[in-house]
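Task: complex structure prediction.
Instruction: return structure tokens for all chains below.
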Amino acid sequence: MNSNLTTERPTFVTHLECAMMGDRYEADRLHNLSKAGKPLLVRYDLPGVKKALTKDALKQRPDGLWKWRELLPVRKAADIVSLGEDATSLIRMPKLEKKLGGGEIIIKDEGRLPTGSFKARGLVMAVSMAKALGVKHMAMPTNGNAGAALAAYASRCGIRTTIFCPEDTPEINLSEIALEGAHVYRVNGLIDDCGKLVGQGKEATGWFDTSTLKEPYRIEGKKTMGLELAEQFGWDVPDVIFYPTGGGTGLIGMWKAFAELEAIGFIGPKRPRMVAVQAEGCAPMVRAWEKGEEHAPRFENAHTIASGIRVPRAVGDFLILRAVRASGGFAIAVSDEAIQAAVDEVAREEGFLMCPEGGATYAAYKAALADGRVTKTERAVLFNCATGLKYPMPKVTATLDRTKPIDFTRL
Ligand SMILES: *Cc1c(COP(=O)(O)O)cnc(C)c1O
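Output:
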């Protein structure tokens, strides 16, 4: 048994705070958005964490998301709902590095998490908090991976789930969500249209709205990517992070993680340059970044094969854009053709099967290396956020007739 799941540890949440206005909200309560309609961020007594937590103590604990308890909102071990959220591997890509003549390329492989995507990090936290706070029914709009993670964790602790997907969501995602015990529906619209249904049904059902960033604890789960990465880098950070950006929870979460780690003295002031990667067919953040704006209006007719980043409007837009700018990073869009070519190239050359969203980060890295926005001396981390096995793959047409003579030299 993983002792992170059973050991009581001191916790340090003081309150929640509107990410826009800075007004305070009570800890250990159910919350959606702030009064201003913006995401809430969980705040900690960081001087207290600094006294209570050492790098050595962390090193003694088993790896995985729940080793970071002092920086997480769940108070009691009994409320932890876990399916085994292990630390994810960093994998070097030496052949690609050599071919591009560039710097270090390191993939953080989030596809190894429960339900095959990093949505598990966010949802394990949201569901554990929902369990702690007595929620009986959760609802969410999803392009697939978040719904699967919600369904899995909620079913595990007896919370009912209702999940809405855009109608063209791949069958495999709906099947997974249904099999994990959710009530799941295809809706004739995009993810923000599905989100509206969650809002509309709230009064009639009493379900809890678990939409991206409309619930404050998911970001705390996603934050562990930044905590974990810094520890894996020997309490340092990479030079640049390429992050496939939909709602932006992970990018915002990692940015928060680095600030908290600096506040407790675990890392210095250096930050990675944060690069928000989007698809050309759905690039609201790239547009807003290029125009120098703080908010990103809805991107109409959004389309891309990278369904996890097909998010036409993000409630945390200003947090994504602030982090990208403050870090000296940038936002970049890549075409679906470049995404597919990137997935093919990484699989063929390095034997690593990325999801399309992960492929987008490699396509963006190549483009940025070519135009000089990333240099050969930089260590880059690319996020592969789901296993490539969840996505459509090319058909194989080759057959062999074993009853006939086979020329093995031609296979
Ligand atoms: C959800 C998702 C993303 C986008 O993550 P955000 O943190 O919401 O921007 C990227 N890739 C995959 C595979 C996803 O499921």
